[in-house]
Amino acid sequence: MKKEDLINKWLNNDQLTKQESEAFEKLDVYDSYVKISETAKKFSAADYDTASNLKNLTKVLSNRKKMPQNKSYIKILTSVAAVFVIGIGLYFSFFKDYDTTIKTISDKSTFNLPDSSMVRLNATSTLTYNKKNWENERKVSLQGEAYFKVAKGKKFDVHTPSGLISVIGTRFNIKQRENLFEVVCYEGVVSVTIGDEIKYLRAGDALEYNSNTIKDKTVADKEPKWYYNKSYFFKTPFSRVIKELEWQYGVTLETKNIDPAILFTGNFVHSDIEIALKSITIPMRLKYVINDKTVTLYKE
Fold first, then answer.
1. Integer Cα distance of 227 and 200 in angstroms
2. What is the CA radius of gyration of the chain?
3. 20 to 30 A from 55, CA-CA: which of 23, 97, 198, 273?
4. If we measure between CA atoms, which residue out of 148, 105, 101, 141 comes closest to residue 125?
5. For every residue of 68-109, which 3-state class applies, written as one string?
6. Is the pLDDT confidence value at 290 over 70?
7. Is the distance from CB of 119 to CB of 147 less than 8 angstroms?
8. Is 100-218 in CATH node 2.40.50.140?
9. Contact 149, 117 (CB under 8 A)
10. What is the Cα–Cα distance from 89 to 82, expressed in whole angstroms?
11. Other C-beta atoms within 10 Å of 87: how many?
């Protein structure tokens, strides 16, 4: 990824892959951007008049024809434009909706929200929330997968690209991975809003939304199995098994002569990639080769 694209992705608070995170940390401007980010979190932003500032910048740019076109001037103007773009990015990233972000790559993270609600964030996931406004509105945004134990209090909302989950106090798991959206309720009642449809889940109920189809399910578990560092599958397309292993270990899996739709039943651990690969390849009579962060699965 180009340097400019990498910086823009970070400024927009988009999820970075492990490789992108490592590349971003090696940039010569990394320290500067991190300092700007950390400083920005410590103060409240005044209302930012985007239209007015953009108009002023446009006016400055239009005057370029009237001024000498020397390298010093162009360099200064470029710097001003860069600061303007960074300012807008920081404003929308840190002040508009959220001021706290927790990201995981090939690991997991357990933490408490301001009301002592517990969150266990799975690998390759991002959760954001507004700590300053938490007493007025208990709201988080999730990309990836997380298990929640919500403290009793006001309504608690979880926003995902596929739907809105609302509760008062309960235990539940949300999985938002690409085109798969799944909600499991372990305690209490959860409401799930997908478009114009609202579903209510009670303990043991689950919902899966995939390819514009909602599927109701039931579970017997008291907590998600991934919470204990294992991924389980029952008659699951092998393509989903591969994606789950990629998320857990931060690697890229390539396949040769393998049907991605073939169904797999089994599990793999999150603590050792060699053991995990053996768990999914031996039952399928497959072989694998590890080359740095790329793993190739193939049939002999």
1. 24
2. 23
3. 97
4. 105
5. CCCHHHHHHHHHHHHHHHHHHHHHHHHHCCCCEEEECCCCCE
6. yes
7. yes
8. no
9. yes
10. 10
11. 16
CA distance 270 to 248: 6
pLDDT of the residue at 138:
96
Rounded CA-CA distance 298/300 in Å is 6
Calculate the average pLDDT of the chain.
81
Tokens of 121: 């964030």
pLDDT in tens, 167-209: 988 999 999 998 889 999 999 999 999 998 999 999 999 999 9
Backbone angles phi, psi at 135, to 5 degrees: -65, -30
Which secondary-structure segment (H or E) carries 186?
A: strand 180-187
Q: What is the pLDDT of residue 140?
A: 97
- Phi, psi angle pair for 147, to nearest 5°: -110, 130
Name the strand (E) or helix (H) holding 6. Answer: helix 3-11
Tokens 């006001």 identify what position? 154
Domain 229-298: CATH class, spelled out: alpha beta
Return d(Cα 110, Cα 62) in angstroms, integer. 52
Residues 247-257 have a mean pLDDT of 94
pLDDT, average across residues 242-258: 94
Question: Averaged over 289-294, what is the pLDDT?
Answer: 93
Q: Where are the domains of the chain?
A: 3-95, 100-218, 229-298
Bridge partners (DSSP) listed for residue 128:
101, 141
Residue type, 292: D
- Cα–Cα separations (whole angstroms), residue 170 to 110, 145, 186, 239, 246: 17, 17, 8, 32, 30
End-to-end CA distance of the chain: 34
Reading the block at residue 249, the tokens are 């270990």
